[in-house]
Amino acid sequence: MTSKVFTKEEWIKSLKDLSGTYTLYGPVRDGDFHSFSVLEEGKRPDFDFRNSRLSPKSLVYPQSERIFEYILDENSPEANILKESPKEYPLKAIVGIRPCDAHAFQIVKANFDNPDYKDPWWVKRFESTVLVGLGCNEPCATCFCSSVGGGPFNERGLDALFIDMGEIYLVRAVTEKGEAFLGKASGGGPADDAVLMDAKDLEASSLEKITSSISTGKIKEKGINELFNGPFWEDVAFACLNCGACTYLCPTCWCFDIQDEVIGAEGDRIRNWDSCMFPLFTLHGSGHNPRDKKVQRVRQRFMHKLKYYPDRYDNGVQCSGCGRCVGYCPVNIDIRQVAALMNTA
Ligand code: SF4
Ligand code: SF4
Questions:
Q1: Is the separation of the CB atoms in 117 and 313 below 8 Å?
Q2: Residue span of the structural domain in which 329 resides
C-alpha cells in the first residue's frame, strides 16, 4: 500500500481537488467544539483538534431518517402501499476521523451487516464511505482505546491514515478504498525510510501517553445471571439522570425507534436514534414496561456493552474507548469503573 508525504498546505489543497470526486467531511470548529461537516467552498478543516464532541457516526447512520412513505387516500391506486423512500449514496470521505471512531464502525457493523441480517441503508452508506483517519498524537486523559483492541494510530476500520509530523503529514493507504483515495490526491511525494521511522517513534510515544484503561477480561467467563444480579447496580445507577447523553454521544450505540408521521393523507415511516436510558424506549403498547426503573436501564447499557455484545458477536466489547461518555456524563458515571466492578464481582 502507498505511503506519501504532504506539506500541510499541499494536503489541504489535495482535499479541495478530491472534493470533485468525493463529498468530503472533516472536523470544523463549531463554537467550543469540533463537528464533522461537509468541506464546502470556504470551509477549511481544522485538524488541530482532540476529537469531535459527537462522533461522525451520523454520516453513516443518520439521527433521523425517512425509510418508507405511503399514501392513505383510498382514491389513490397507491393507497396503503408502503414504498421505500428514495435515497442517494454519493461517494464520501470522512477525513480526520479518529482511529477509535473508525474502530467503532467495525463494532456497529457486527449488528448492521452480519450473515443473518443486513440493514440495507447502513450497509450502502457504509460501503460508499472512505474513512481517512488522523492519528492521535495527544490522546485525552479519558481515552482508553488501547485496552479495547484499538490504539492512537490503529488502522482497524480505516481505509487510510494520516499522521501529523509537524510540518508534514505522512499519509498511508490501508485498504483498496484508501489506495484509490490517495491515488486521486494531487501533490505529495514518496515517504522515505527516515519519515517512516519517525512515524513509528511518534506512535510509540503516543501509546505511552494513554494511561487510562478498562478491565473486561474476566467478564466473558461470568454467567449472565451472576452479573445481572450483581450487588453494585443500585450504587452505579444512583446518580444517573437518564439524560441519554452517554448513548447519543457514543459511536458504538445503535438503538433506534421507528415512528410514523402522518400529515393529511401522506405518511412517512421514520427511523430515529433512541436510547436505552429512556423509559419510553421499552414501553410496550400494552402499557407494560419491562425496564421502568432507572437501575434496570443503567444495568442494560453496561450489560449490553460489556456482556451481551461480546457473548453474541465474539468481537470484543461494544466500546472503542473514545472516552466521550466518561467526559460528558453530567454526574461522572464512568464505564471504566463499572467494568472494574463487573470484572471483579
Ligand atoms: S450521561 Fe450519565 S447521567 Fe446521563 S444517562 Fe448516561 S450515565 Fe446517566
Ligand atoms: S461506551 Fe463511552 S467510551 Fe465506549 S465508545 Fe461509547 S462513548 Fe466511547
A1: no
A2: 219-344
